[in-house]
Amino acid sequence: MINLSRSVSAAGATLPRPALPSPVLPNPTLPGAASMGTSMGTSVGGATLTEERVPALGRSGEGRTGDGRATEGGALEEKIAVRFHIVSVCDTQPVTAEGIHTLLDNSPDLRFGQGTHSLVQAGEMLRHSPPDVLMVDKAFGVQLILDWLSSLRGASAGDLTARTAIVIWGASVTEAEALRFLQAGARGILRKTAGIPSMLACLRTVAAGRSWMEDSVFRDSGRGERYPHSELTAREQQVLELVEQGFKNKEIALDLGIRPGTVKIHLKHIFEKTGVRGRYGLALHGLRERGLASAQA
User: Residue 276, class by beta-carbon neighbours within 10 Å (0-12 exposed, 13-18 middle, 19+ buried)?
Assistant: First the structure.
């Protein structure tokens, strides 16, 4: 392109001087302009949030990527991947799901999925669009939830509880109920009276593949720490391990080849040495010692 407004004189003749091309700045509204700024994409299925940032040129005019590679034109390219987990709610009161939704809006790593008000709908959700975590209201009924968990584990598509961490939460949860839920496939036990930090800790823990339960669910939870299992005899250790697995006294006696009355004597000694009262307390205490995460309410 020739600019006729500028010229030089050479040997009496006036010759046009080519003008230097003017720099072309990208228009932010044009399709190709996104590469000059910051782009962000979200994939709900993969639960991955990706941010791509391209800062301005450095002093030397040479840019490098995060792995040390120079980019074309010297732009510095930086990619940051942020992992977040989808949390859905199945509750007898729809307003509860809205409250969880509002709470998770401020979380950097948790996102609300959807809310349902029946276990049937929740089961369909797990089959077709499974979230990372599903919170289930205990108010549906203990036995109904246990049967529902059993159906999830025996589904034709495979164990649905392996893909989605189930958290049972309710106004009150007894030791016996907590143990039955955990043995049925639930990964978390939470009371509705728990504070926001405890709730978020529970959701993050189960989403990471671990089990979680409020410390307040344990009866006299601190007493067992004063009585280490090293004080138990070999036979008492065997009895304790079977109790933790949910065995009844007759089943323990049959498995160890001893009388049911002898099992009761061993249990009496175990209760005295561990400071834990009741077979459900023993089972939950064993789960906690094997890595069940817990927090005080």
Answer: buried
* Dist CA 272 CA 262 (whole Å): 16
**CATH topology classification for 85-217:** Rossmann fold (3.40.50)
Instruction: Compute φ and ψ for 239, nearest 5 degrees.
Output: -60, -45
Measured between alpha carbons, how far is 12 from 267 in angstroms, rounded to an integer? 117
What span, in angstroms and rounded, lies between the C-alpha atoms of 189 and 176? 12
b/e code 160-199 from CB counts within 10 Å (16+ = b): bbeebbbbbbbeebebebbbbbbebbbbbbbbeebeeebb
What is the distance between the alpha carbons of residues 281 and 217, in angstroms, rounded to a whole number? Answer: 10
What is the DSSP secondary structure assignment for residue 77, as one 8-state letter?
Answer: -
Q: Pick the closest to residue 218 from 138, 135, 280 (CA basis).
A: 280
pLDDT digits (tens, 9 = 90+) for 106-157: 899 999 999 999 999 999 999 999 999 999 999 999 999 999 999 998 877 7
Q: Where are the alpha helices (DSSP H) in 116-233?
A: 119-128, 142-153, 175-184, 196-207
Place of tokens 């043995």: 183
Every domain of the chain and the residues it spans: 85-217, 223-289
Q: What is the pTM of this model?
A: 0.59
CATH of domain 223-289: 1.10.10.10
Q: What is the Cα–Cα distance from 293 to 83, expressed in whole angstroms?
A: 22
